[in-house]
Specification:
Elements (H helix, E strand, L loop, with lengths): L6 H15 L9 E9 L4 E5 L12 H11 L6 E10 L16 H14 L4 E5 L6 E5 H4 L13
Parallel strand pairs: 3-4
Antiparallel strand pairs: 1-2, 1-3, 4-5
Bound molecules: 2'-deoxyuridine (DUR).
Length: 154
Amino acid sequence: MTDVLPDETVRTLIAAARAAALHAHAPYSRFAVGAALLMADGSVVTGANVENASYGLSLCAETVAIATASAQGRLRQIVAVAVIGGAMDASGRPTGTTPVSPCGRCRQVINEAAQMGGRDLPVLCAAAEGDAVARHRLSDLLPHAFGPGDLGIS
Ligand SMILES: O=c1ccn([C@H]2C[C@H](O)[C@@H](CO)O2)c(=O)[nH]1
């Protein structure tokens, strides 16, 4: 269990999420989101939002990152999540200084990784620019969650 993330780790994860957001496919909302997962071995897995012409089929950055970790057989090894986002400028770079918080569906997707990994994940919420970081725990963002334990799975 990662209790308190060192500031350097927080900065590294946010930088990775910002780099990932540059690959967002977000021509409809023009809101780029990047997510970075800290893995138990110290490596980082990232994702960016992938929108769709059928708007409701769009994939959030956090979900893309978690699916990538799962595809690598590492769903249980996620120890922290960072998310950043912001409105894209003309060149496609996310902008702004207001931290972004995971949407409700992403909180539930993060919860699957958290509960299967036996952790209460730190979720770091930052903006495209600036130093503001809101440090949450998943259990604060999604209290009383429905999860694998409700189906007898651990
Ligand atoms: O937690 C979130 C919230 C929103 N988005 C994306 C979805 C859509 O592409 C864009 C605007 O909602 O931001 C994410 O990637 N993660």
